[in-house]
Amino acid sequence: MTETVLDTVLGLYNYWVVIFLMMTGFYIVIARGNLIKKVIGLNIFQASVFLFYITVGKVSGGTAPITAEGLEVYSNPLPSVLILTAIVVGVATTSVALSLVVRIREAYETIEEDEIYAQDEAR
Amino acid sequence: MMEAIQAQLPVLQVVIPLLAAPVCIILRRRSLVLPFSAGVCWLTFLISVFLLGEVLEAGVISYALGGWAAPWGIEYRVDALAAFVLLFVSGIAALVLTYAPRSLTDEVPASRHYLFCTLYLLCLTGLLGIAITGDLFNVFVFLEISALSSYALIALGGRRQALPAAFQYLVMGTIGATFILIGIGLMYQMTGTLNMADMAGRLAAVDGVRTALVAFGFLTVGIALKMALFPLHVWLPNAYAYAPSVVSAFIAATATKVSVYILLRFMFSVFGLEFSFEQLGLGRALMPLALAGIFVASAAAIFQRNVKRMLAYSSVAQIGYMVLGISFATATGLTGGIVHLFNHALIKGGLFMAMGCVMLRLHSVDLDDMAGIGRAMPWTMAAWALGGLGLIGVPATAGFVSKWILLEAALERDGVLIAILVLLSSLLALAYVWRVVETAFFHEPSERAREAREAPLSMLIPTWVLLGATVFFGLYTDYSAGIARQAAEAVLRGMP
Question: Residue B294 is part of which domain span?
Answer without folding.
Answer: 285-496
